[in-house]
Design goal:
This protein has helices spanning about 15-30, 35-50, 50-55. Helices cover about 70% and strands about 0% of the residues. The protein contains three helices and no strands. It has one domain (about 10-55). The relative contact order is 0.16. Helix 1 runs antiparallel to helix 2 (about 35-50) and helix 1 (about 15-30) runs antiparallel to helix 3 (about 50-55). It is mainly alpha-helical.
Length: about 60
Amino acid sequence: MKEQYQPSTFEDLEVYQVAREFRKAMYRIAKRLPAIEKFGFASQVRRALSLTNNIAEG
């Protein structure tokens, strides 16, 4: 029988690691936006970036 990997923390989960990379990419994109676009985009980004928090909370 094949053993299954059991992550010891949520940080070990692949989905969490991918979400962190996504969050970093979004921050890089947001920094390059013109000031006028940052305001409207910021609230959408904040909602998307809560993904890692949701994973951590379970």
